[in-house]
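To whoever picks this up:

The parser on our side crashed when reading a file containing two proteins. I've narrowed it down to the boundary between the first structure block and the second sequence. Both blocks are reproduced below exactly, byte for byte. First block:
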Amino acid sequence: MERLTDVELLQRYRRDRRELLNFLLAASVIKKVVMPPGAVSYEDIDLDQISVDYILECVRKNVALDLSEAIKRYHDDLNLPPSAGNGFGEVYFLVTRPDFSGPVPNRIPPNKAVPVQSTPLSAVSKRSLSLHSTPEAALDIDDEIDDFDDMDDSAVKHRKSSLNNNISNFVLSLPPFETGLSDDDLRETAYEVLLVSVGAAGGLILPTKEKKEEKKSKLAQKFSRSKTDKYQPQPTRAPGLAGLMETMRTQLEISGASDRRTREALLHASASRVGKRMDTLLVPLELLCWVARTEFTDKKLFIRWEKRQINLLLEGLLNHPSQALDPSDRSAVELRGLISKLEEAETLPSPAGPAQHAESLKAIRVVATALAERAGRGDHTGEVCHWVDGYHLNVRVYEKLLMSVFDILDESHLVEEVEEILEMLKSTWRILGVTQTIHDICYTWVLFRQYVLTGELTLLQHAMHQMKRIASDGQRSTQERFYMKGLRSTVEGLEGPQELSYVQSVLTPIKSWVDKQLEDYHLHFLDSPQKMEVLVMVAMVSGRLIADESEQAGVLAEMAVVAKQAEDYIRSSIKLAYDRLLEALDEKLEVENVHPLALLAEEVQTLAKNDARVFAPILSKWHPESIAISACLLHSLYRKELQPFLDGVSQLTDDVTSVLPAADSLEQLLKDLVASATEDEAVKHTFEQQMVAYQVEVVSGTLIMRWVNVQLSRLSDWVDRTIEQERWQPISMQQRYGESIVEVFRIIEETIEQFFNLKLPMRIMQLKGLTNGFDVALQQYSNKVVAQLGDKADLILPPPGLTRYKKEVAIKASKKKGSDPRDPDERRSSEINMLTTATLCIRLNTLHYILSHVDLLEDNIQDRWAVKRPQDGPNRANKSLPSKLSGFMLSVAFEGSRKVVNIAIDKICEFTGTKLIFWDMRTTFIDGLYSVSVSQARMDKVVSALDPVLGELCEVIVEPLRDRIVLGLLQASLDGLLRVLLDGGPTRGFAQSDSAMLEEDVNVLKDFFIAEGDGLPRGVVENAAAPVKHVLSMYSLDTNEVIETFKRMSEQMVGGHEITGRQGPHSSLDSDKLLRILCHRNDQVASKFLKKQYKLSST
């Protein structure tokens, strides 16, 4: 915060001195007080002209206080050069001019090599008056007085803190005083004007001596009591106008002597002008004429007072008149000359000096009265003579009067008598040319300036309320409008001289100050949004009033200007806040070991959230899309920092894994803020177009897919390797599956863990690519398991050629021994023999492991994805189409694997059944069943051999696959039976009478698999046995009937069909089956038919 100006510091130091005097006198620590000649009480003494340091010295030495010496010491100290220091140990006198060399440093001076003796307290007095010492240093003198316990610490603390608020640049846009009138000059003049206005109403009285003795000041009463006296609460102020005037005197910090002196002069002036109102007096002139030099205890004090009155005449009548005066104007030149003579008279000895003084005053009265009687304010007040001609001095004086509403000990609060004071100040309107509008404007300024000084929210709210009461140009009366248009001034601006109305002169600096605050509202109002809300309203209302003065207002135009102003605040504050984030990065990076862009993204997210939470509700009242504007701007600012990094990304690194997620999270947050800003899709689309995507998804997606492809390639290699190394032994009695599938799923789960630990922005397509790779790997595994089995056709020997049955040939063929030339080669036979029932079951169990674990795998992936991307999670309410699509894509991620695994299970079940029947039990079943005759080789022998095989299957296979593997064995058994019945070769011959035994054998086989309800369902068995029953029904027919049926069916067949072509056991060609039945018919009729019709031999 910048330092206060010298004038403001001086004013504050004077107030502090008065408080210190009050403190010292109230504490009763002074041994004795010697009054100066002519003074009866403290009201006769100007406390501003007393050296506080001298009083402190008397207190420390416990000697009598001579107020005459105190006054002399004060004026002597003024001639000393400025001093500065820190503490009582050392004082440094400045030999240079501080106004050219700048403020002195606030740091403590370096220690000297030798101890420094304590400087007497009197030396510190020279420092206490320096304009350039720090406020804290000036106030630290209280620490040296340990016995003063009555000081209001909270008031001092508040005063010190209020010094931190800089108002040096917060001034009215009015021309400066050419004579250098100070705020103290204006304050004292304001009280004089107030006395005149009260006197015009008959309320100006001069207290009698008795009354004056009764109403001694609180300080004097405290001084008069002894140290042993108990504190007695003082009565409240006197009722009525007298008490209120006493309050005003205190508030304006006017000494009793000055008050009495001014009252006497004004009463004499009014008495000398019988028939004229007191408020038509030319106040400075009358005071110059009626206040004598002898009424001041010090000549320098009189000269300063006289200079102030002269300056008031110059400012009010010549420097800033309502109607411009030519510098060469006779009256102006004459008045300046007379004033010079008046000042010169003070330097002349008696009697020449007093004579010239009286003569000059008499001449000044004539010239000044003529100037004051000019029609400077039109017909507004109806006056003939006004105390000043121009309005610039009037409004500044009225400002000082309004400043009296603040408590001098706690400047952030209004006094209790504020309403009475404001009502009394209306009596000054006639003198100062104030209207209701001018009052509202000036009071707004005073309240707002006090808020700037103290930061008190209540004052800001009062100022806003007062500003709303300011009437616009169209709301003023015709007379007031004409009067207000005449109140204009020319000030120097950035673009040269500017002519401003009074409304503009007051509200322009207010709006400029507010604009400066709101242009960085993130800095000033993060912890005080209530102040910001009121200040935004101040900015908008003041802007409207200023525009109204320029006749630029309009409903639509005003709305556009308000929205544009709010947008400017947003853009300015966002940029400044963002710049601060950039500046603070280096310091934070020393603590946090992260990439700067990642840290910046987190900070911007915090900024965006604070903006949406704290400031957007305020600004959205003036611009509905405030959230969208700030979000778009933050998006653009961060993009400028991010884009060079994205352009350089080529591989997955630690920096990439930290920056990309942070950037993506920030972008999603900003997009969500834009989406929440408005329901208008067109407006929303406009803002979305402004947010050029970071393309983090593209960069991240490319890196992720590269990583996924590498991992899937490794997974494919692992599948091949584990399959090759698999021995198809159960892991344990409980884990009856191969180790290879466990290893495959371990690799898959590790890959999933690594995938989700990438912490990169990812979309469903990258995850889908990974799951597709897993799906392909599992299909690859399943296919390789099936491929290891080889061709099922190798298990089934080619059927023998068709021959006529002949018993002798059948007996001879059944006795034939040796290897069958139709067997596969030795290598293939060895491979088939290695495919034991247990290993085949382990394969099936392993494939079932895939089916059971892909469900768990899907659930795991969906859960991890829901954590990674909550917006795409399956449980999100009101899911959008992309979210629903994501859930569907994940739920069917392994459908391909499920299908392929089920097909593989069916194939292995079919392969297992075929191997057991056609390979392992070929001798018993395929070769032995019904060999030579049905009665000698029935099905019960086959079932007996089949029972332990089925038991082994059920022991190893997992429960969910039991029915499927048993069904495969049933189907293979039925296929084997059909092979015996239709392709049994020359050893099989069936008579019509054998059909009953065949039916019985089929029922035995079915009952074996039904197992009295513990096996396969009866319906499943019956459906599987239907083709066998169809063949058996043909065996039960008479041979001639079979032949006739065959002939009829053959005629119906498509031409060119070769009846010798094998159609298989499941062929739907009944003619083919009939032919095969005739070939296996143990019947002469069938044999002759085949020999005659098809030339079939019996061998």
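<<boundary where parser fails>>
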Amino acid sequence: MRNLLSQLLAAGPELAAFILTSPVLFGAKGAYAISFTPAPSPNLDLSQLGRVAVAGDFDSISLWQYTGQSEALLTNNGSQSLLTQFPNGQFETLQTSDASIAAMCQFERNGKVQGVVVGGNFTRLGGVEAQSIALWDSSTNTVSPLTGINGVVSTLYCDNDSGTVYVGGMFSAGNSQNAMSWTTGWENLPFAGFNGPVNSIAKNPAGNIVFGGQFDGLGNTTTAVTPNGQVVNLAGGTISAEGSTSTIAGFEDPSNIICKTGGDGPGNTWLLSDNRGGFWQGTYGFGFIPTKLRLYNTKYQGRGTKSWAFENLANGGYLEFNYTDSSGNTQLCASNCPLPEGNTDAQDFIFTQPVGVDNFRIWINDWYGDGAGFSGIEMFQDDIYSFAINAFNEPNCDGVSNAATSVVNPASGLWNRIPNNGSTNSDYLSAYLTSEAQATSGTSVVFNPNIPQSGNFSITVYTPGCISDGTCATRGSVNLVGTMHPGQPAMTATVTQTNDYDKYDEIYFGSVDLASGFAPSVTLTPVANQALPQTVVAQKVRFQLITTSGGLNGLYEYNPNKATVSMDFSDSAIDSAGTQLAQGAVVNSVVWDSDTGYVGGSFSGKGISNVLSITTKANSLPNGGLNANVETMYLSGSTLYLGGNFTNTADSSVTGLANVASFDTGSNTWTALGAGVDGTVQTIVPVDLNITSGNSETCISISGTFTSVNAVGGSPSFSADGLAVWVPSKNNWLNNIADAAVTVQGELSTSTMVSGLQFPLYAGQASSQALGYSGAAELVGSGQPTLQSFGLKVQDTGSSSSKRKRASDATQDATGIYTGLFYDNNGLNITALGGHFAATGSDGTTVQNLVIVKTTGSSQTVSGVSQLDAKSTVAALAYQDTLLFAGGSISGTVDGNDLNGLVVYNMQTGKVQSPQPPALSGNNVAVNAIAPQDKTSYVYVGGDFTNAGALPCATLCYYDTTQQQWNPVGNGLSGVITAMMWSSKTTLIIAGDLTINGAATKMASYDSKKQTFTAFTNAASLPGQITALTTASSNFDSFWAAGVASNNNSAYLSLYQNGGWTAVGGLGKDTIIRGLQVMELTNSHSSTALVPSNNALVISGNINIPNYGNASAVLFNGTGFEPLLLTTKSDGTPGSVSQLFVSNPTGLLHLGSNHLAVGFVVLIGLAIALAIIFLLVVAGILIERARRRREGYVPMTETRYRGNMSRIPPETLLGKLGEKGSPPKI
């Protein structure tokens, strides 16, 4: 099948897509639900151009071959998507979510596919609000929410034999905790879930469901630390009243009674006006579930409240209470709850039902004496919260509580309070970070809860949705660091805040120790190195005590065929395996291989470390297992792949197991994957990739918090930025395979096979392009070109995850390979590449910014120009004979003399030329364009400078290579030149931001004979400086120009023809145009006023096409834009193409007219030659006949009488031989 796929892809994407979706080849199921539409062929005619290459700032590149193919933008904010692959192996995004996707499985019932169940930490999937779980339909690519779960889904198992989906995680649903099942709706499991999170679910050969996680008992067993033990901060809201007294000073303020315990008097008591009812009201920016209300009645001057009612203003209903009367009996009340007269203590009222409250009234219906009032009020809840807004936290005012607090850093100026407006359960804090200095641990919120006792706690952080405050575009991720034990390392967790709707994440499950007065805390800070600006939000953290029924330790086997659950766990080998481990085992992954189960996590036992096998009992793996946590496992045949944060086996006998390893279940041996990676591996996902020329095979992707893959053998370490791919057939990492034809960036969290989908369904965010080489690639073949490696890899240039350095000079903001040229003369075959980058030379040294690739026969050498400073940027290249001129923001030293803006390299000797042209000078010197004049020794240099050596020569100057000196051009020019080209032997076109004799313009011509400048008509009206220029016709009477508008920094594109400019719209926001080139086509399009039918304009840079997205090069046919090249960088962001260059530039000048194929041209030429020869022969015959007639020749006649002609007298032939003075007649 893979060999067939390779052949189909080689035949072309259109044919591959047709055959792969044909029911004839793949059976009766017919066409795939997710179909791929081949992109139109670019029809580029490269036949006259020789070698064709593109240069830019990218780490991978591909041609646009399918309509859904794009430069996938990878983010680091935690959001993920559903993905599949095009036939060329690149990824297509099907649906996006607002957070992570942890698990997927295809769900079938009665043999019919119901869809793919998707679980994770999202609140939106595919534009649909879906809390943590949803059903994706592959036939329609639509999402249906499975409502009913509150929390996070971590694992799924679709038991298609019974038509049941088992769901595990950290959530509540129905009467179950952390585990639930779905058939046609949610169904409680008979054991009511677990008292801790579930991380893995699998099915064993006996048909039983095996749960793995961090639990030690069954059931929904969360409980309050102390019932009614947390005080609600009633002072944290707005207090109001109706009917307050206006005649008794000091008793009119309804806030008097908060945090008071019955001491009557001014400032401590609130009274109503005499002989009337009224109410006391509290309105809050946070929600709570009250469990107890404590009221203190007033006795002031015989007054007091006799009966009252509690109204929940959220729904307008009166709430019911239980209370104990004076006889000690429990009573029920609602609309008329009594308070005893003259009581000296408080009266407690217990809420009968848990109801959320954020706005309530206490109505006073009747009173004692002259009027009603209260001398104190307190409200209690079970929940332990610490709010970011400190005013919402538990108070410390009456000796009942010790108070909860929060601390905000910085204390002022950055964090702002955001009202909930009914869209979330409390107001919260928000910080808008715009600088790296703000996006550090110095921006934080510290949550300090009031926890009255030690115990096992589940700690969850609440995050408000981004839709309500309009910050979805700037949300990212935050770190949570918690101290739970005195003197022990802190726990850490990362939480994404990209959720559209409210969510909560469990960040810790385990013990909290309050020994020696220790107080736990949780600190929220932004994750470093995220895109700016970033919005960070902080709402609240909950601490929930966990109790247990006992008997389990991270593993549980459930028999779905039994109606009741036995609490005798010793009957199960799986349950018993857990009990053989040290208490507190954490199981992260369970997989089954025939009759043997493999369990990975964080645990230990007799001879067991972090991984074990289960047959009839728990068994240790060879070498005692692994020396640290196992986070994930994947079984492929007899090879078990494991990822985590281990470094070796438990007995330290197998080296190279840095965070990833493989175990052969047949031979029971460990094997390293190279030398591993430098950080934790969190997921292992199989992925199909076209490793070499369309040869698809299953590889192993690993994702996690690592940044590089370790060096092994002869392969150095390389940056991985959280994802690396192992190729089992090559026993090596993808990056180390020399002829690899694909590269992948991003992360993959899970995958599943789906009926009707020709490739697996993946979750994560991933980008792959066809060619994994940096900075430059070749285009080969006409019509539908292919990409080939340029044979050069750009290396890492520092500790940054990016493979590129940013130019330090603001005048030329170029990274990567910016320009290039081919040279194939004088017995030399050289490719020169310039920009701001680094590569490895043939001698192993680092070469930077100007690289010379010399080809001799089948060998190739890579060298550089060591005299250039590392900060240099090369922006322009040109040659005169064997001298290579390189211009840009260049600095360095040659023969003790400084370089500034220009360096000359002798390609014949392989060294910098000596002497160099005298250095340019000025402020921020930059050479942007170089144009040698044909048939001369003059090289024209344009840019931003004022002098060439000692010669005043601003903006444009020419260097005579014969005389080795600079020469000035005509007068009146100033400004900055960004592009130049010769339109004739003596006319130079210049563009940029120019002034000619005091008049501003963007484009002009220079006559080298007359030494005069002439501005192009209306060029001053262009919206901004020209940054890219090309001719639109072979006679150079029309031009394409692109640049940046001065008023809004947007890109513009204009055509000059017939003496005027035509603006072209249709490019999207943030477009950057770096290069323009008109190309001929193999097939014509409809002719337009802007582009002839046999031409297309190639626009390169970072081009945004509305309703499509970014492309690095696009084709413009006069009416619309079509992607041509797609690129990405190693960090997953879109790349860019700066320039297209060819080895035969004269082939680019046959523009604007139709032409015939070479064969027809030869035949026509032959016919013309034969016709000319025929005409010459006929003309010769006619001339000869005329001459003879003129000289008296007549036809020979015969006589009847004699068979002889008349004799010619001898004097006629010989008589004039002696004469002189006239030449013989011909």
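After patching the parser it read the second block fine. The chain has six helices and 89 strands. The chain has a mean pLDDT of 87.
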